[in-house]
Amino acid sequence: MPDYENRTMFVCLLIPTTTVRMRAMTPIDLRSDTVTRPTAEMRAAMAAAEVGDDVIDIDPTVQKLQNQVAELLGKEAAIFMPSGTMTNQIAVRIHCKPGDEFLCDAGCHIYNYEQGGFAQLSGVVAQPVHGEGGILKPEQLVDLIRPENEHLVQTRMATLENTHNRGAGAIQPYENVVEICRWAHENRLTTHLDGARLFNAVVASGVAASQWAQHFDTVSVCFSKGLGAPVGSALVGSAEVIALARRYRKLFGGGMRQAGIIAAGALYALENNIGRLAEDHKNAQVLAEAVRNTPDLRLNPDRVDTNMVIFEIAPDRGTAEEVAERLSDHAVLTLPFARHKIRAVTHLDVDATQTQQAAEIIERIWA
Ligand SMILES: *Cc1c(COP(=O)(O)O)cnc(C)c1O
């Protein structure tokens, strides 16, 4: 049993009844948009999925998902994989060879949260650039391509992340994306977009997925984040690139056989859960307002574009661990993100009422 449930039961014995009711509730889990559980409808779609051996030839449900994702992102082909880490690392493998480098924002997921897989698996190095809250400006990149010289690695690729996880779900300014990708291609670099939360950017910006994607050679998207599927990501690109990705997927151990069962969850998510991301964005604003109303807490970065809120506790008032602990005592789960930073993420398993409760708890425990 998770620790917070034990704590909840213990605390119930000691405190007044109004608080007991609050504490005995199911926790409001804002740690990540990956904590969602498949609904009965999604499970039914998964149970009914038509399947085949996708390693020997094809699984019809996986194929349907791949076709649908490719079409939605305006690319020739897509390939289903178990995780966003795998789609990103295979993209690196496709675009770069040992002794190459890629340009990325210093706070990005590929650089920080994938064990440096590009180095371990592909012999590639990164040249991280410090963007503001995950946002790179075109002028930061122009001088970074290394000249032809046998002392140097060769610069091959530029990557962006949209929305940006450490940037509190920030949406990349569209004009920056256009300009960075144009510059990259003019200079014979390829481009990859880590679009784990691209659909959040789509819903919040009104810029279609295919419009974002057209500037990149490859794009990865996750079904297991805001879209609420239990498993899976896809990589999209040209037919040629995706054929290569299929080879690397097998090499990296990601060839899956009757994967239609999980692809059906992803398909269900794609068909039903994109539009509703707007509710998560609205709920994130409610949490942001609670942080703004609390003197010891501060949004950092001070923007909430989509479904994430990152806030800081004044250093003399405690650490992120302590804040998360205190919130968890009140059945609100958050993620310590740095020594004084806490992340809260809204998603389809937290409705407007629960968000309001979480917001009140955030304000009340510092009152
Ligand atoms: C979650 C995430 C990934 C990786 O996805 P996994 O499925 O957890 O491997 C990649 N990029 C970003 C921005 C993410 O948030």
Question: How would you portray this structure in words?
Answer:
The protein is an alpha/beta fold and 367 residues long. The chain has two domains: 23-36 and 275-364, Aspartate Aminotransferase, domain 1 (Alpha-Beta Complex); 40-272, Aspartate Aminotransferase, domain 2. Helices cover 43% and strands 17% of the residues. It has 16 helices and 13 strands. The protein has helices spanning 3-12, 17-24, 40-47, 60-72, 84-95, 109-112, 117-122, 138-141, 174-186, 198-205, 209-213, 239-251, 260-272, 277-292, 320-329, 352-364; strands spanning 28-29, 77-81, 100-105, 125-129, 154-161, 190-195, 218-222, 233-237, 297-299, 308-313, 332-333, 335-338, 341-345. The strands form three sheets. Strands 2-8-7-6-5-3-4 form a seven-stranded mixed beta sheet, with helices on both faces. Helix 4 packs parallel to helix 13 (260-272). It binds pyridoxal-5'-phosphate. Pyridoxal-5'-phosphate (PLP) binds next to helix 5.
Fold topology:
Layout: H1 3-12, H2 17-24, E1 28-29, H3 40-47, H4 60-72, E2 77-81, H5 84-95, E3 100-105, H6 109-112, H7 117-122, E4 125-129, H8 138-141, E5 154-161, H9 174-186, E6 190-195, H10 198-205, H11 209-213, E7 218-222, E8 233-237, H12 239-251, H13 260-272, H14 277-292, E9 297-299, E10 308-313, H15 320-329, E11 332-333, E12 335-338, E13 341-345, H16 352-364
Parallel strand pairs: 1-11, 3-4, 3-5, 5-6, 6-7
Antiparallel strand pairs: 2-8, 7-8, 9-10, 10-13, 12-13
Helix pairs in contact: 1-2, 3-13, 4-13, 5-12, 14-16
Bound molecules: pyridoxal-5'-phosphate (PLP).
